[in-house]
Amino acid sequence: MPERLANRLKERRSELGLTQAELAERVGVTRKTVNTVENGVFTPSATLAIKLAQALEVSVEQLFWIER
Amino acid sequence: MDSYTTGLGVGIAAAVIIVAVIKWLARNKPMSVAEKAEYLSKRRARMLPALAVIFLSQQAAFFSSLGSPHETSAYTVKVSAWLVLSVVILAALATKGFWLERKEVRDLIDDENTRANRNDAMRWGFLCSMGAAIAVYALTLFDVQMNARDAVHIVMTIGIPAALIRWGMLERRALRVA
């Protein structure tokens, strides 16, 4: 069974009332990148994962986990 | 002025006209850096397959003239314009592109996901080019006559559009909202 990086980006973003574009602006990427990370299409680098976690005020482990 | 220089001039003039039209269409549209990056990102996703079609249609003109005398002025102009377009596309694939935009916009538009998509497209372009090179090599083993220029043309005709189409596909998929 292949491993994949699951996330609760969308859920946390909605809790904070942020749009994808607003989150993207906070992190310094385009909306497209936030969209692909949210949908599991793109696996972010450690740097981007940390930036996303900081922008969403949670730890990286709370935001991302490995699904088997 | 020889016909090669004329061809080169025609290619560069065409590129300048295209850039001028794009800039003129984008006038009076005040946008933030993020909005501009989003707008250009969408435009790039639409443009990449179109660019592949333009490139391939230029190749059709080349291949239809195979076997005819190569030293005519029309042929030289066509080949020189093709060469300019190839270099521009390769430069766009290898760099962030959008050279006339502000640095902040260019940095944002070449973010992590775009770089990953671009690298994947380059990988596809390389593999397709190598596949075409092997096919051309194999053909010459069966007494098919081909000069070096035609062989390079075939390899580039496969490799460049492969990279463009792959990048376009990945960008469109990334822009699609779930």
Oligomeric description of these chains: heterodimer
Alpha-beta content class of chain B? mainly alpha
**SSE-based structural type of chain A:** mainly alpha
Tell me what portion of residues of chain A adopts beta-strand conformation.
5-15%
Low-confidence stretches of chain A: none
**CATH topology-level fold name of chain A:** 434 Repressor (Amino-terminal Domain)
Q: Per the principal axes of the C-alpha atoms, what is the gross shape of chain A?
A: globular
Q: Helix and strand layout, with pairings?
A:
The complex is a heterodimer of chains A (68) and B (178).
Chain A: E1 4-7, H1 9-15, H2 20-27, H3 31-38, H4 46-55, H5 60-63, E2 64-67
Antiparallel strand pairs in A: 1-2
Helix pairs in contact in A: 2-3
Chain B: H1 3-25, H2 33-64, H3 73-94, H4 103-109, H5 112-141, H6 148-175
Helix pairs in contact in B: 1-3, 2-3, 2-4, 2-6, 3-6, 5-6
What would you say about this model in short?
The complex is a heterodimer of chains A (68) and B (178). Chain A has helices spanning 9-15, 20-27, 31-38, 46-55, 60-63, and strands at 4-7, 64-67. Chain A has 68 residues and is mainly alpha-helical.
